[in-house]
Design brief:
36% of the residues lie in helices and 26% in strands. With 443 residues, it is an alpha+beta fold. The chain has a domain at 117-190: Dna Ligase, domain 1 (2-Layer Sandwich), CATH 3.30.1490.110. A hairpin with a 3-residue loop joins β1 (22-28) and β2 (32-40).
């Protein structure tokens, strides 16, 4: 497992960054690249002790630099033009370093897209009445049958989400407890290997060390779902520019992630084509006048869609807000229908609580929550990221959910498979269908 070693070396880099006390957070998106510089003050859980997988409250760090720049060379959340993306990453990074007044060597990055696939794995070992040790945890994780996920895929996350000793399920950390058998449920997320390699290569070209990598579906859920939602069951829908990420949490762990290759940029290009205006003009119209729910008033509200073609008649056009909504709504519905199909496939309706939280830049379209609750048929709310120390006001909106979540993930990483000394030659090949099968059995 080649990624196994690279994940380990990233964990090592993260420890070095912690010792230095600063790390950069990089959210590489299709519409913007956001960079935060974190300073760790040594408090909070920065050590290896503590519960397995507990994502503690955000303690121990503050944001000392923040910057965003328009993304370049990224489509559907994946890098398509390396040099352009590299330039954009450098721009965001330099601006954030300047604000923080410090040089940063280590970066933890997240990205969306890359066709995530979720697997539910499980395993059981005998304890013979002994106390559960670190080795037992490693052994039970190693006993999970890893599916054949394909040559061109890499494991991005492999997290134990539930331990059971004998018949006591729902343990977050079994170490130190007695029993006859130890079992584990694990969630494994694989992504397109090329997407990870491109991102790693881009960061290397910027003369930075990669100290961690995460799925933006996961980190958005960490920051936009409140603790109760993460505990009782909820889905986080992050409407980005080039893709829409979906994650499902229960028992404080992510148990499913997916993404839809559509986002806010697609709505913008529909407006651009429908009104025959340039993209940046369409983006402005969307931001100031957009919506998905037309009332009688919207027939009368006229929007000036002036251009700068030099053709006076063409540049003087107006359009009613109702017409604009008529262009936007079908695309928004299409995105939400796709999201619904993914939630159904995951068995979301089997969870005890089915809260849905919308976040990301695209979630700011007026009336979206109402339309989403119609299509998704659940309680829907709009989510902003958790407040973290030192975050500038401009970075507190929903479009920063994944960047803030990544900061929380950097400060309190959840235990993953590679944190335990598992023999790397264990590589069983029993295929497992793509679904979280223990949804129905355990909750």
């Amino acid at each position: 497992m080649d990624l196994y070693d690279s994940q380990r070396s990233m964990r090592h880099m993260r420890k070095l960054a912690m010792q230095r006390g600063v790390v950069a957070i990089l959210d590489v998106g299709s519409s913007k690249i956001a960079c935060l510089v974190l300073r760790f003050d040594g408090s909070g859980r920065m050590s290896d002790e503590g519960e397995i997988g507990s994502l503690a409250g955000q303690s121990g760090f503050r944001v000392i630099g923040a910057a965003t720049t328009r993304s370049r060379g990224v489509r559907f959340g994946e890098i398509t033009a390396m040099q352009e993306t590299e330039r954009a990453v450098r721009t965001a990074l330099q601006a954030a370093q300047k604000m923080a007044n410090i040089r940063v060597d280590h970066v933890i990055a997240c990205f969306s897209g890359a066709e995530p696939r979720s697997y539910g794995l499980d395993a059981q070992i005998d304890l013979e009445g002994q106390v559960v040790s670190e080795q037992d945890v490693a052994q039970v994780l190693a006993s999970c049958d890893v599916p054949e996920y394909g040559e061109d895929r890499e494991v991005l996350h492999a997290q134990p989400v539930n331990f059971a000793i004998d018949n006591r399920s729902g343990l977050s950390d079994p170490r130190g407890q007695l029993g006859n058998s130890l079992s584990v449920d694990m969630h494994m997320l694989t992504v397109n290997a090329a997407a990870v390699q491109h991102l790693a290569h881009c960061i290397k070209r910027c003369d930075l060390e990669l100290a961690g990598i995460a799925s933006s579906a996961y980190v958005s859920g960490i920051s936009a779902l409140v603790e109760d939602e993460q505990e009782l069951g909820a889905a986080c829908i992050d409407l980005g520019g080039g893709s829409t990420s979906i994650s499902i949490f229960i028992g404080k762990h992510m148990i499913y992630a997916d993404s839809v290759r559509m986002g806010g940029d697609h709505i913008t290009s529909d407006i651009s084509m429908g009104l025959q205006v340039p993209t940046n003009n369409a983006e402005r119209i969307k931001t100031f006048y957009g919506g998905v729910h037309a009332t009688g008033m919207d027939d009368r509200e006229m929007i000036d869609i002036g251009g700068d073609t030099g053709d006076y008649e063409h540049d003087r056009r107006t359009v009613s807000r109702a017409e604009l909504i008529g262009i936007m709504r079908p695309r928004v519905e299409e995105i939400l229908e796709e999201v619904r199909a993914r939630l159904d496939a995951a068995g979301f309706d089997h969870l005890p609580s089915q809260q849905i939280v919308l976040t990301g830049g695209g979630s700011q379209i007026p009336g979206l929550d109402g339309l989403a609750s119609k299509i998704l048929g659940q309680q829907v709310r709009l989510g902003r990221p958790l407040r973290v120390h030192g975050l500038p006001q401009a970075a507190t909106g929903p479009s920063f959910a994944s960047a803030v979540g990544l900061a929380l993930f950097a400060a309190n990483p959840q235990d993953e498979w590679w944190d335990f000394d598992i023999p790397a030659d264990r590589y069983p090949a029993r295929s497992l269908k793509r679904a979280v099968k223990w949804f129905r059995d355990n909750w």
